[in-house]
Design the sequence.
């Protein structure tokens, strides 16, 4: 077998993943912390104030990375859901369900930071603008996935049902988004684009990209930590989990 | 034993569901009553001023009808699950999605169609202008099957749960936001004298998509729930 494929198969085995994730975790947390501190310092202190919005614009260093993450995490969850439903890989179920609460948290932070920025800028906490409304709908989708997962007793069946809901949500999200755009729009257009020139000064851009990097790394760190805990609970009857528990106990007594 | 043809199975299922609804026809009136009560509460809250009521009429009727339809969604598979016939459907040699499409069609006929029939009454209660009424009826005729189809997927996911009411609402509501936007949007446009064709066509397009995909998705969801 191709070595990459072999590694991929090994990764799907819970004990192997548990060990590997444990080795990565401290590094991921450290990288996320360092780049997060650098990004926040760059954004909140070094970057110049906006000519129009003054210091209020600094909210984007929290708001925008979280908004990107809310979509990225949903895409990640949906991709894992697809793998879980099609190939029935246990690890993908765990990863999909572990990413849902993190995505919901990012979405919630996006909404709260957006409304904190909206009060001085638009003069209101909330407006029924297209992007805000889509983000709210996204939050409800996350909550639906989490709620369904916790409502069903059998963990694996719950993960499969919730994964299916996540996929239904993927089909619906574009429809919801465009219908809401058609309905009303006030939110400012896109400023940062991957292709071509961004409409933002580079002195303001680099902290933003650093923050985006930090939130991605943090997401994977948090995901691995959650997935490790979920795997232990899921496989609690297996030998390898018993081995870990016994080693812990021996350490505690020794 | 040789299984019958698929069309015979569908006919049998349609007749059985109609007979079951007819035997409990009192229950079928609940969504109607609910919609009338919700609509009747708005004038109490906002005052009897005809101009205010006229402005909110289309949206209020839409929300009331959607909520009433949502309320009745839970009964879609409930009794079949309790008496075990849902498992027989899953095990049958006929395509499950087709059988479920029949069930959804009957459910729409018995719960949503009566709501459309009393919509003129609701419109009268809120002083909806007469020229908007046909648009409202068309929009409801397109929106309620969509709700039944999308709702069926969510019901299939939650059917095995003992208490699914609140969770079902949480699952269904974000998915039907576009239905509400386009349906009520068409009525509001008609009321303002603007062209209202586009939102209705959008609803129709989405209905076609849901007609094809939703029974398949419901079947897949049901298989997950019943394993």
Sequence:
């Amino acid at each position: 077998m191709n070595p990459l494929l072999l590694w991929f198969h090994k990764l799907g085995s819970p004990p192997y993943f548990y060990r590997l994730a444990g080795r990565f975790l401290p590094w991921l947390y450290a990288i996320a912390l360092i780049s997060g501190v650098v990004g926040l310092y760059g954004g909140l202190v070094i970057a110049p104030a906006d000519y129009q919005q003054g210091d209020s614009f600094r909210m984007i260093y929290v708001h925008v990375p979280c908004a990107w993450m809310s979509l990225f995490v949903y895409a990640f969850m949906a991709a894992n859901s697809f793998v879980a439903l099609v190939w029935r890989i246990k690890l993908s179920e765990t990863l999909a369900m572990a990413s849902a609460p993190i995505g919901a948290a990012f979405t919630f932070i996006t909404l709260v930071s957006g409304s904190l920025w909206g009060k001085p800028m638009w003069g209101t906490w909330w407006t029924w603008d297209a992007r805000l409304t889509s983000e709210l709908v996204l939050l409800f989708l996350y909550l639906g996935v989490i709620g369904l997962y916790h409502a069903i007793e059998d963990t694996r069946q719950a993960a499969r049902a919730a994964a299916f809901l996540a996929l239904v949500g993927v089909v619906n999200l574009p429809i919801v988004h465009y219908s809401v755009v058609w309905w009303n729009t006030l939110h400012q257009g896109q400023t940062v684009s991957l292709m071509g020139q961004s409409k933002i000064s580079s002195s303001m851009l680099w902290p933003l990209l650093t923050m985006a990097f930090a939130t991605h790394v943090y997401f994977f760190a948090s995901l691995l930590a959650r997935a490790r805990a979920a795997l232990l609970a899921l496989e609690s009857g297996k030998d390898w989990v018993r081995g870990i528990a016994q080693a812990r106990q021996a350490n505690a007594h020794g | 034993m040789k299984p019958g043809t698929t069309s015979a199975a569908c006919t049998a299922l349609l007749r059985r569901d109609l007979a079951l609804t007819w035997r409990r026809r009192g229950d079928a009136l609940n969504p109607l009553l609910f919609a009338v009560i919700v609509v009747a509460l708005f004038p109490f809250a906002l005052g009897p001023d005809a101009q205010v009521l006229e402005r909110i009429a289309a949206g209020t009727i839409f929300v009331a009808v959607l909520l009433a339809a949502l309320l009745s969604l839970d009964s879609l598979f409930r009794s079949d699950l309790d008496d075990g016939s849902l498992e027989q459907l899953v095990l049958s040699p006929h395509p499950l999605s087709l059988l479920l499409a029949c069930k959804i069609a009957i459910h729409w006929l018995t719960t949503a169609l009566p709501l459309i029939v009393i919509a003129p009454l609701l419109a009268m209660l809120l002083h909806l202008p007469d020229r908007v009424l046909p648009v409202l009826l068309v929009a409801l005729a397109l929106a309620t099957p969509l709700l039944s189809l999308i709702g069926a997927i969510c019901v299939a996911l939650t059917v095995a749960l003992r208490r699914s009411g609140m969770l079902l609402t949480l699952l269904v509501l974000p998915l039907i936001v576009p239905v509400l936007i386009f349906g009520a949007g068409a009525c509001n446009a008609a009321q303002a004298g603007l062209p209202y064709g586009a939102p209705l066509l959008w609803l129709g397009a989405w209905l076609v998509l849901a007609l094809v995909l939703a029974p398949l998705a419901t079947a897949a969801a049901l298989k997950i729930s019943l394993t």
About this structure: Chain A has one domain: 30-187+204-234. The longest helix of chain A spans residues 14-46.
